[in-house]
Every structure is written in C-alpha cells, then in structure tokens.
Amino acid sequence: MRTLFSAGLFALATLATLATLPAQAAGDHAGHNMAGHGPSGKMALVDGTVKKVDKAGGKVTLAHGPLTNLDMPAMTMAFKVKDAAWLQQMQPGQKIRFMADNVGGAMMVTHIEMMK
Ligand SMILES: [Cu+2]
Question: Ligand 1 centre and the CA of 30: distance in Å?
Fold first, then answer.
C-alpha cells in the first residue's frame, strides 16, 4: 500500500510538473484515491475537443470527457474561459486537455493545455 501511495504521489507530481503524461496516468491516480478524499483539489485534466469558439461571447463549446469534479458525464457544451486569450489559440477540431469548475454558477475552463 505504501508503495502504491508513493507511486500515486509521484505520478501526481510528475503530472503537475510536466503535464505530458498520457491520460491513463491521471485515471490511474484517481483509482488510488482513498475514501475521504473529496472531489475537489484534484489536478486531473480532462480530454476535450473544441467544437465552436465564440470570441465575442468569451465562450467555447467543447466535446468533453467526464468531469468528475463537477459530477458531469461526457457531453458537448459551452464553457466560459478564465483567460480570453485562450480563445485566440482555439479553433474547431483543436484537441485540448483542461480543467473546469463551477464559478458563480457558470461552468468555466480554469486550466487548459493545447494538444498538437
Ligand atoms: Cu458538460
């Protein structure tokens, strides 16, 4: 157990530092979360594909995987973005990995990584 826990911490640290590990690493770590570990505070990035960019509205429509921190299954929906500059880097078809949160009742992308 100690070894598993250490490996989990290492994976998390590596993910946070490099953020280049495959998605399976994040999922693997999530699987090691013990009871009592709340849904918030995780840095697990979710896969998404940009469907539509609304620069005027400051929103992006994403087809996203399950957002466990928001208790949301995979779907396509619009998000606000924390940094409007991100919209300049996005276009339909762009693959991303991101984190979203409920900010004042609105779903907002709070962290993003553009994939090649
Ligand atoms: Cu959604």
Answer: 19
